[in-house]
Design a protein that fits this description.
Blueprint (H helix, E strand, L loop, with lengths): L41 E7 L4 H4 L3 H6 L23 H9 L4 E7 L6 H10 L5 H4 L13 H5 L20 E6 L1 H5 L8 H6 L10 E6 L9 H7 L2 H5 L9 H13 L3 H4 L20 H6 L3 E6 L1 H9 L4 H22 L5 E6 L15 H4 E8 L6 H18 L10 H4 L2 E3 L1 H5 L14 E6 L2 H9 L28 H23 L7 H27 L7 H29 L5
Parallel strand pairs: 1-5, 1-6, 2-9, 3-4, 3-5
Antiparallel strand pairs: 2-7, 6-7, 8-9
Length: 580
């Protein structure tokens, strides 16, 4: 059952949940009306449909050992580089050269691995249900709480308007797969007509420019991608002007060359002619479209359609991945030139099997990729080390509880060996030619709380994911508390609040008494540990950054993390088991 409740920016999730006695931390800071201080001012969400994790990883060993993708050598008993490997070098390059601005994750999806169901999970943090599993094409609008709807809403009336500056209207751009429009018809509604007619409310959610493209023709590899690529530079690059920087001219030309179908570049979306299908209005011109957007969502389908049409073992997929690599390079170049902090989230909604299909629960279908980048430092070596200790402590907790053994591998283990990369290259005796590299592994719905809090939004009410630790582990002074501890406590309270409201709303909630009791006990224990920690810090504030207190912080954070993982694992078994 999906609950209609919404998380409010002004009200922290501790209010009225089981086991919370203290009322001092139930309201957000009135000056910001944020659950957690925003790390970024703007965001770009780029969905590369069907980007499997091994499409995004890089192997120097592969590049030196298998230097060709010529299929003719296969008959000579030699090995060739698979056409989908080492095709996104920008991810590897930035992860090496700017390690505190970039990180790659295995991004495990919950089946069914179809785009409509995955977009629901990626925006709400919820698991698919049996009803969801039956459809990928006839999607109904999402009514439940999501980060996209929160982004388009102004802060609620609980914010203190005497201390907070006027609400900032958030401006949105959407380009790509029209599945999003069926799911979010209100949030993704173009506002140009209202601007022209003078009916856009003030203050309002801000302007929106929406360009969806039809998604169902899997034989068409280029139209959706070309639609996205031909419009992105108008938002990312300043308007053309005489005497403009030569580098900008070169980048604009690089964008043009990326478009496979020349007629897709020659659109009229930015024409100043009134009767044209233009994105411009009296109040929103070319300068405003470039300068004032706050979020861009772009969803390309070429990689996915290559899989459906040819399968992954075809040269077309290497060409399509190379196109995406160049697009990511140009996006990074644009946001690096901007002084506003901007987050870039690049991910696949699912993977694909050896035939290029998806929808089921095989490893290659559920193992997508997530790459996060920003033009500012958002994590650090020390923060990552602390996050790793939290994950190790949580793993130890999970191994000792009754439900621990039944949790899925991706919930019990926070690191994963990229067996897909390894298994594609076998020797004559059937053995592996090299060892599988290790990666951080997260659940796909973990993006929801991560994106929400990093942008200053509340976590959606029905979310079951857990914030990605590395994003917050370097925030050492967030509201006089370690950032990761603060985030995981918020996340745990939000999950328990959902559970308690679910129980109150339905007598036939289906939760086993033992499971419900365990969840409450785990949360209560974490809260007790947290109170003990705050008492210690209050008594010795000057020692807060010393190792003994840091170890306590990490152990308490691990308790909250383990709690959210147990709840998700239990509900997966109850709600998301399908015979696919």
């Amino acid at each position: 059952m999906v609950l209609p409740d919404r998380s409010l920016p002004s009200e922290l999730p501790f209010r009225g949940i089981y086991g919370t006695a203290d009322t001092s931390d139930r309201t957000a800071t009135p000056e910001t009306c944020e659950w957690y201080p925003a790390k970024f001012e703007r965001a770009i969400v780029l969905v590369v449909d069907a980007m499997r994790i091994d499409f995004a990883t890089w192997s120097d060993e592969l590049n030196t050992t298998f230097s060709t993708d010529d299929e003719s050598i296969a008959g000579q008993g030699q090995h060739r580089l698979m056409p989908y490997h080492n095709r996104l070098p920008i991810i590897n390059s930035l992860s090496k050269n700017r390690p505190d601005q970039s990180m790659l994750y295995r991004f495990r999806a919950d089946p069914p691995t179809t785009t409509l169901q995955r977009l629901k999970g990626l925006t709400t943090g919820q698991l698919p249900t049996f009803i969801d599993a039956g459809s990928n094409f006839a999607g109904s609008a999402i009514d439940e709480d999501s980060w996209l709807q929160a982004w388009r809403q102004l802060p609620d009336g609980g914010c203190n308007r005497t201390t907070q500056p006027p609400a900032h209207s958030r401006n949105l751009v959407f380009l790509g797969d029209d599945t999003w429009i069926s799911l979010f018809p209100n949030a993704l509604s173009d506002t140009r007509a209202a601007e022209v007619n003078g009916t856009l409310p003030e203050p309002g959610p801000g302007w929106a420019r929406i360009r969806p493209f039809p998604s169902l023709n899997v034989w068409d590899l280029d139209t959706v991608d070309d639609g996205v690529i031909s419009r992105l530079p108008m938002f990312l690059l300043p308007p053309e002007a005489k005497g403009q920087d030569r580098e900008l001219e070169q980048q604009r030309e690089q964008w043009r060359q990326l478009v496979k179908q020349p007629h897709m570049w020659a659109h009229t979306d930015f024409s100043k002619v009134p009767e044209a299908n233009s994105m411009l209005s009296d109040n929103v011109g070319l300068t405003q479209l470039h300068r004032d957007w706050d979020m861009i969502i772009a969803h390309g389908l070429g990689v996915d359609h290559c899989g459906h049409r040819f399968g992954p073992d075809h040269s077309a997929i290497s060409q399509k991945l190379a196109q995406m690599n160049q697009a990511i390079e140009l996006i990074v170049s644009a946001i690096d030139r901007d002084d506003r902090s901007t987050a870039l989230f690049v991910f696949g909604d699912h993977g694909m099997d050896s035939k290029g299909d998806h929808g089921g629960d095989s490893p290659r279908e559920v193992d997508a990729a997530l790459w996060m980048y920003s033009n500012k430092k958002w994590h650090s070596r020390q923060g990552d080390e602390r996050a790793a200790r939290v994950l190790a402590n949580a793993q130890d907790i999970l191994s000792k509880i009754p439900l621990g053994a039944s949790l899925d591998e991706d919930l019990r283990e926070s690191w994963w060996y990229n067996t897909h990369l390894r298994d594609d290259y076998k020797g004559a005796n059937g053995g592996h030619l090299f060892e599988a590299p290790q990666l951080r592994s997260i659940s796909q719905i973990d993006l929801v709380s991560t994106l929400s809090l990093s942008l200053g939004l509340p976590i959606p009410f029905n979310n079951l994911g857990t914030a990605i630790p590395e994003m917050f582990a370097a925030d050492d002074d967030a509201r006089a508390e370690w950032g990761l501890l603060s985030v995981l406590r918020l996340n745990a309270a939000q999950v328990l609040r959902y559970i308690e409201k679910y129980v109150d709303s339905s007598r036939s909630h289906g939760f086993a008494d033992d499971a419900l009791r365990l969840w409450r006990i785990m949360y209560e224990r974490a809260e007790v540990s947290y109170r003990e920690l705050t008492d210690v810090v209050a008594q010795t504030p000057k020692k807060r950054h010393q190792p003994p207190i840091r170890e306590l912080e990490e152990r308490v954070a691990a308790e909250y993390f383990a709690f959210t993982r147990v709840v998700l694992g239990s509900l997966r078994q109850m709600w998301a088991q399908f015979d696919i």
